[in-house]
Amino acid sequence: MENLVKGKLQRWDDEKGFGFILPEVGSKLVFMHVSAMKNSSRRPKVGDIVSYELFTTRDGKLRAINARIEGVTLKNRSKSSWKKTFLMLLKTAIYIGLAVIFVKMLLNNFDHRKQEAIAIDDMGFQTGAKPKSNNTYSCDGRIHCSQMKSCEEAVFFLRNCPNTQMDGNNDGVPCERQLCGR
Description:
The protein folds into two domains: 4-69, CATH 2.40.50.140; 77-182, no CATH class. 30% of the residues lie in helices and 20% in strands. It is built from two helices and five strands. A five-stranded mixed beta barrel has the order 1-2-3-5-4. The radius of gyration is 38 Å and the shape is rod-shaped. This is CSD domain-containing protein.
């Protein structure tokens, strides 16, 4: 791309949306498509003085880009531009709203899990302590919920035995789906 160049529109085919500019300096006609005048408030006419940037195509032809008709005002910000801005703001507000809802759900779920752990502790299963029961359990190699007979037993194994696999979400409540769920 080069600096801004001026010229006079010599030919214009309004149906096809293109024409040719004769530059002030030089005699080689420059092709201009209507898309080069995106912000013009009217279509070009033969005789218009046009300012443009000169672009040379791969095959060596000259083309006008970013063109503007002298003395013609540029379009005001279009309605579609305002609409796009509004839609972008609306989408952003929706995404923020969804994020807030998601975070609230996570916090509520966390609080619910915390309450479950407190409820199990209230049943007499304190962290690191043996459960209050007449039964005595011992670490005998069982590690899965399917091997437990009660929630009390699962809590004992989780808190006191190595390598257990009974607390998938690491919230301190074992076998939530089978034995200790609420």
